[in-house]
């Protein structure tokens, strides 16, 4: 009788894909679905990337390449990251990855021993929690609270969670699912805690370039922190390359060498010819990249305006990411719905609007009294946003 390894019981998943599957079944039955559930992008990859990749294929770049990535990409990426963040990386600080996600597990494997405690955001990307526990660590959540214009760190609670066993901090600034970002005061206090308690930090900057107003800042650029941070970089968002699977781990040389060794064990190397497409994307004309941002900004504004017009819903207008995390507590009270799944399934079946809820982004924390849903607007066109959320508004009324 087959017996699956015990460790697999500690491995979580992204339950948002289950929502996607349920929506697909609903659509196959002939129903219209408005897909706000997954953070995929339904916009074309810029032509510069496609042309650069196709040329590389024609030039025979279809075999193995260095396990850290081709030197040309690592050099260009270091220059691009330094220009945007004020850091001092070279190609030796970069290991190319098959997407952004692999950096999470490899950072944890490189720096965490079984029994170590790791601070991670909750609500947050569920793979943090999954990878910490799968590798034998103790996942310690920290959370956010509603501020004036966006969600803010519950900094006091985070500080109280630090113990002598705390080893790592996972920081997802420009955060999925909330769209929250750190202000200067939060960065300053976090920096003090990291240095005081000798922590190492995963800076998940997947949405660093998905910004509509202002300028993104990196925690790694804070004094004394470049040597304590590993940046998760991905080409998926900025260049609409979610299915191309290309990203990078960026950080201290000693840590990157360990991650490169894990690369050899896990996947040998990242796709060869796509890396040439990434070079073309970074160094070529940025008109199409800017157009992606403008399209997403228009979608954000339309969705936020409709959501805030619904009785019982309040929604921030985040400056970055392509996610909204509206508070639906009042709506659920008014509709006499007392659990997330009843709300999600009722809305799907009565309006076709498919979204995730707070439950898809980490285990609920004790004493949560407010309810939130998450809408991704990266994979749905502007007219469909208006149509779908219009139906949602009519249902809510």
Question: What are the main properties of this structure?
Answer:
397 residues, alpha/beta, Aspartate Aminotransferase, domain 1, Aspartate Aminotransferase, domain 2, 7-stranded mixed sheet, 3-stranded antiparallel sheet, 13% strand
Secondary structure layout plus pairing:
Elements: H1 16-28, E1 34-35, H2 47-58, H3 71-85, E2 94-97, H4 102-111, E3 117-121, H5 126-134, E4 138-142, E5 144-146, E6 151-153, H6 155-161, E7 166-171, H7 184-196, E8 200-204, E9 229-234, E10 247-250, H8 253-266, H9 272-283, H10 287-308, E11 323-324, H11 329-334, H12 340-351, E12 353-354, E13 356-357, E14 373-376, H13 382-396
Parallel strand pairs: 1-12, 3-4, 3-7, 7-8, 8-9
Antiparallel strand pairs: 2-10, 5-6, 9-10, 11-14, 13-14
Question: Quick recap of the structure?
Answer:
This protein has helices at residues 16-28, 47-58, 71-85, 102-111, 126-134, 155-161, 184-196, 253-266, 272-283, 287-308, 329-334, 340-351, 382-396; strands at residues 34-35, 94-97, 117-121, 138-142, 144-146, 151-153, 166-171, 200-204, 229-234, 247-250, 323-324, 353-354, 356-357, 373-376. With 397 residues, the chain is α/β, with parallel strands linked by helices.
């Amino acid at each position: 009788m087959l017996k699956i390894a015990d460790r697999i019981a500690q491995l979580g998943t992204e339950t948002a894909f289950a929502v996607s599957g349920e929506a697909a079944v609903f659509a196959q039955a002939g129903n219209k679905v408005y897909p706000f559930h997954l953070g995929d992008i339904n916009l074309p990859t810029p032509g510069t990337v496609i042309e650069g990749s196709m040329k590389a294929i024609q030039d025979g770049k279809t075999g193995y390449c260095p396990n850290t990535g081709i030197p040309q990409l690592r050099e260009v990426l270091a220059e691009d990251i330094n220009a945007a963040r004020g850091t001092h990386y070279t190609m030796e600080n970069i290991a190319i990855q098959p997407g952004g996600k692999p950096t999470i597990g490899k950072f944890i494997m490189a720096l965490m021993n079984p029994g170590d405690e790791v601070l991670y955001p909750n609500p947050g990307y569920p793979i943090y929690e999954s990878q910490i526990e799968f590798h034998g660590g103790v996942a310690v959540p920290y959370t956010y609270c509603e501020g004036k214009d966006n969600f803010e760190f519950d900094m006091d609670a985070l500080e109280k969670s630090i113990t002598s066993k705390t080893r790592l901090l996972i920081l997802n600034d420009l955060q999925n699912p909330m769209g929250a970002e750190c202000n200067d005061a939060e960065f300053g206090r976090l920096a003090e805690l990291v240095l005081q308690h000798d922590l190492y930090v995963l800076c998940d900057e997947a949405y660093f370039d998905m910004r509509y107003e202002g300028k993104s800042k990196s925690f790694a650029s804070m004094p004394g922190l470049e040597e304590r941070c590993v940046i998760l970089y991905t080409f998926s968002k900025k260049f609409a390359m979610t299915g191309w699977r290309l990203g990078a781990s960026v950080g201290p040389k000693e840590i990157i060498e360990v991650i490169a060794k894990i690369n050899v064990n896990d996947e040998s190397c990242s796709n060869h010819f796509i890396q040439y497409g990434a070079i073309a994307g970074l160094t070529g004309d940025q008109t199409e990249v800017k157009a992606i941002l403008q399209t997403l900004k228009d979608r954000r504004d339309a969705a936020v305006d409709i959501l805030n017009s619904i009785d019982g819903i309040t929604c921030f207008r985040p400056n970055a990411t392509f996610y909204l995390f509206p508070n639906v507590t009042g709506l659920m009270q008014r509709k006499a719905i007392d659990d997330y799944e009843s709300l999600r399934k009722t809305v799907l079946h009565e309006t076709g609007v498919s979204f995730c809820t707070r439950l898809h982004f980490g285990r609920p924390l004790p004493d949560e009294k407010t309810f939130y849903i998450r809408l991704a607007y990266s994979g749905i066109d502007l007219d469909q946003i208006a149509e779908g959320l219009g139906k949602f508004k009519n249902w809510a009324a």
